[in-house]
Amino acid sequence: MGGLSIWHWLIVLLIVVLVFGTKKLKNIGQDLGGAVKGFKDGMKDGSASADAPPAQVTNNSSTTKATDANTVDVEAKNKS
Fold it and tell me: pLDDT digit string (tens) for 70-79?
């Protein structure tokens, strides 16, 4: 009592196929598989970049002119 037998699952599967159709179920399965694969790839990329050594920061305070249009030169002053 309370458990579902194989016959119950087959009837549920038959009703789902009749309601949605096989093409719609195939598309849902492909979308779900692609989402899971993308998530796993993202997790691999995240752990690979976390293992990489951090980028070194250099302090060139003698240069005050920006050499690239996308860089901004900022000087920090210490409070005494």
Answer: 776 676 666 6
Rounded CA separation 79/63 (Å): 22
State the Cα–Cα distance between residues 10 and 25, nearest whole angstrom.
Answer: 16
DSSP per position, 34-47: HHHHHHHHHHHHHH
Tokens 């779900």 map to which residue?
A: 32
Instruction: Measure the CA angle with vertex 42, ends 30 and 49; round to 5°.
Output: 165
Helix axes 22-51, 6-20, angle to 10 degrees: 100
pTM > 0.90: yes or no: no
